[in-house]
Amino acid sequence: MSNKRKLVVSVTSIAFLALAGCGNQQGTSTDKKADDKPVTLRMYQLVAALSDDEFRDFMVEPLKKKYPHITLELVRSDKDNSIENLIAANHFPDLIFTASNFLFNSVKYSLPMDLNELIKKNNMNVNRFDQTAIEDIKAFSDKGELLALPFSTNFSIMLYNKNIFDRFGVAYPKDGMTWEEVIAIAKKVEREDGGTQYRGINPWDVRKFATPLSLPVVDPKTGKAILNTDGWKKAYQYMKAITDISSGNNKYPSFQKDGTLAMFTSYGDIFGDIEKQAQTPAGMQFDWDFTTMPSFKEAPGYGFRSLSHDLAISSTSQHKEEAFKVIQFLTSDELQLTLTKRGIRFPAIDDQKLKDAFGAFSPILKGKNMQAIFKTKNAKNPIPTLYDDFAVSELNAAFTKVKDGKADINTALREAEDLANQKIATQKGSQ
Length: 431
Prior knowledge:
By secondary structure, the protein is of the alpha/beta class.
C-alpha cells in the first residue's frame, strides 16, 4: 500500500493541548498491564471529515500517552483504498470513522460489528452519550445491534456577514427567525453594488434544506420512494421562494472566502473551515457572527437533522479488544473536553459542562453569539434505507426542473418518484 494512500502519523507530545479530566469517565481503562504487547490499529476514514491535524492532536498523540503500546494509523478512502478493494485484499482496517448519515456505506458490507457485548463486558455507560445520536445509529440495525458509537455531534446555525448588512443599512438577523423572515431579509441584501454581486442566502440542495421537516424519501417497509407528498411539495415551495430571489442564478459564493454572501445555514463544524481561512494570507476580510437556524413554521425550533461522526469496529479486525479501548478513550470525558474546547467538534457526551466549554480555546469564536448553539434542536432522522440515494438523486434533479421553469412542483415530484422507483426496482433485481 502506497504511503500516499496511507497516512501514518508519528507520535509526539502535544504542545498546545493539555488533557484535563472533568469527573466521570465511564468505561475507560486505567493502569497499563505488564503483558500489553505493541499493536498497530488502522482506522478507515469513510466520508466524514478528519484533518491530519485533528487525527494527530485528538487521536494519535493522546492515545499514545494513555496506551503506549497502541499505535494508530489512518487509511483514507479513495479510488484504490475503496471498501471493495480492501475487503478483496483481506486488508480492511480495524476501526471505521464515518458520519452517521453514511453508515450504510459500510453496513451493506456487514463491516461494523455489534458493540453491545464489548460495551457490557467493559461496563461502558451508553447513557452518557447524546441519545439522539445513539438512536440514529441503532436505526441501521433491526436486530437491536449498536454498530458504532459517536465521537462528536453537530448543531445547526446561520452565519451572516455583518459588512453586507451594514453596507445596505439592513438590520442583522436575530435568533428565532422563521424562513419567511429570512427570505424577506435576503431580498433586501441580494443586489449588485459597485460592480459586485451580493447574494442573500445559499439554501444548499433541497434534501439538506428540508431536513428540519424530517421527510423520508423511501418507505422502509415497502422500499419504495415517497417523494410526491405534501411535505416535499411544501419544501419545494420554500426552496423556490429562495432561488427566485436570484432570478435563476444558481451560483453561490463561499461564505468565508468571497465575502459576498450575506447568510449561510450550516452545521457548526464549519468553524474549522472559517479558522483555516482566517489563517491564510487573505484572511477573513469581513466581520461575521451567527444566529439560530431559521425555522419552518411546520417545525418550529428545529434545524438540520441529527448528525454525528461515529467510530465503529470492523468485524474483520483481529484486535477488537484493543480497538474498543481506543473508542473508550476517544469518548472519555477528558478527551471530549479537549475536543470541545477546540471549537470545531461538538461533544458526543450529553454533559452540559462539556457543551458549555465549546470553543473556549478557539481564536475565532471570541465574542460570538455562542448561546445560539443551544437554541435549535436537531431534527429527527427518518429511518434510513439502502435505497435513499436513488430517491435523493431524483429529488434534486426534479427541483432543478422546477427552478428553471421546466416543470411545476406537482409534476416534478410525481415524475421524480416514478424514476426513483424504477432505479430501486432495478437495484433490487440485481441483488
